[in-house]
## 1
Amino acid sequence: MSFNPNELILEKIRAVEEYDPATNELVGRYTQIESPSLKTAATGTAVTDAMGAEITTFYNAQTGTFDFTNSLFSLDLAASQFGTEKEISADMKRPVSETVKVDGSHQAVLKYIPVGPEGAEITTVKVINYDNTFGKTYRISAAGADGAPADNESFVLDAENKTLTFPSDVTGRVFVKYDAVTGNTVKITKSSDSIPKVRSLLVHALFHDPCDTNMVYAGVISIPRAQIDPSAVELTLTSEGKHAASYKLQKSYCDENAKLFDIIVSDYSVA
């Protein structure tokens, strides 16, 4: 008997994959899919008679959307929404904020080597008072003959050794902000003029035969052209937050009969 399914049980969407349509290179893969939804729409033009009674309606300008929520925050998905690419480097600098204890030698040792203009890698440091408020601000200066700060308003920085030296009356803790190279680092940037690129999507699904639920079939929704919607991106910055995305399905403008998507189910059982 030929494989000709009609009603199937959709178990779940296993993954959503983004590809560069020009090179077919994978640029993003999302595997924690919640609330996936595939919708289509069309513009209807009603044809009426002289009395205004509707004779028929012609539908054109067909469009589609594909929405889902990823259970986990995805840097690849955010990069796609921001219209940018993920940067990966072991030499990338990033901002660091530290609260550091001043020792008996009136010195504070940083976690990382600060980077920046030589001799001014860190320009100011604030003392933290006993009640956690900010106190006096100290500014960088050249060291005196004895290696101490030039005056009671400044500090000396030995960037290579990650050491700050303060006047003798500074005790407790200080707050330090600086730039440093901290190891393997990933960065995505949202620019005001960036536009998400058109991608192709593969939406992988698992189906069950309703007459034999032990039979599990592999399916895929193939979307040749989709552009992620950047108009209302919201990143919920909590541990319970989800990462939602919405794609607008597009046909090639120069192809009159271009498809929006294919739904493909194979008789190959993955059970």
## 2
Amino acid sequence: MSKRYLIEYLDDLVLFIQKIKEKQENDTFSYYKKIFSYLKAANSNLQAVYEGYITEALNNDEFAKLQSVFLHSARIKMLPEGSSGYDHCDRLWGLLDLLACDDFDNVYRILPEGLSLSTNGYSMYIHGTNILLCLLYNSENATAYPADKIIDKAEKFAISKKALWERSVISCLLGILQCDVSKISDSLQQVCDGFTKTNAAKYMKMQCQNAYGLMMLAKHFLSEEKFAQIIYPECKNFSKNYMSWLLEQDELSKDLCVTYDSPMEELNEILKKQIAITCIHQPYLNSANPYLSAKDKKAYYMDFEKMLAEFIQ
């Protein structure tokens, strides 16, 4: 079944690429922008393919195959194209999913040094992003971000009436920041439980990819002794065996679950390139629009145009 859906997906993609090449022959930027937009939208068309591969991988303990599914899906989501209306918090969910299958170095490209605190976006994303900025750039010798204020606001969110998955992700990130193993363990269980109740696609709910990502974050920031004390979640969407396999890998493979042939073979390399470095801008800072508030004018947004231009050069 998954093979038939994969063939249909690849055939449709070939037709789309040929059509775009004819229209955008001398405009490389517009060509890649349309291709990346198509790939992001088509991720949903690969649901049946992903579901089949995930089932096969888990049934046969083929964890490299499972990683390749996670990687393909996450890499497509992280392509520099979009218009969310958010600042850098737009990439939080994608970042956590990526950590379940890719190298940690990409975190520093997704949240590069010098970014301001996130203020423009979905509340869960804002809290999670700001906690991550503290984890990445605050130290005993330097305080780049006001951790106390960030923690206070995030803790209030974690006990709010928001969805369980959202609150649990923030609670887990707080646990990592505070080196609280008990909070991490409890939150991870709730992350997996809560994710089954989200509106995510079926293939995503089959495995809570962001839970693995949170574990990899904990591994990076906690001591070996503390990390070893984390209790794995008991949930169908979390494979303890995959987690153990992931931790044993000295270097993670860049193999993708989908291989692209001519005339789209370049996609194989594009999806293996380093993640585009996040860029943000203030497009309305000097706007004379009377309907924009002072806050609106100062707001930051993802600068996908700049990111795309740098990514394809």
## 3
Amino acid sequence: MSYISEFIKNNILCIFFVTLGLMAWAITISARIASKKAGRFISGVPGIGGPLIIIGFLLSPVKWLALIGLLDFDMWYFFVKVVPAIFMVEIQERKYIPPDEFDGGKVIEYSQFNKEFEKITIKMEAPYADGIHYICRYIIIQKDNKYTLLKTEHNIKVIERVECDTPEECKTHVSTKVKWTKK
């Protein structure tokens, strides 16, 4: 009996993390089964079970059992599909060149991509929360002999429009970090 109590005392963190990991795996697998039966998506806790099992067994004297955590498919999916997709979107946004016509006007100048030129808060009516948007690119367009500065989010979604008389006036409404490119 003393061996069992000594084992539990020495491996309490291992047991805790492995138990949490196995519970996360069980919840994820049962959510997948329930999703198939219900015909709609039911969320589990994907990608959590494997790392918890790895941490748990790395805290124990039997470290090679941490390899069991590598059986978590969702963890591999995250590293093989999700992470590269994030980097590809970033690369595509940096290389993006607006078309000659954008938002109903001719593109005159546009800025290079930057993750955070400025932060804009758009007030929403109750019961909605205020929206916070990070401006990543500016585009100056000409329409009907007027110039418009478009402040766009990371997915080239227009957040704010500023009407101006000249392109230089449009440039006064932007961040000081902007590097402009003529079309």
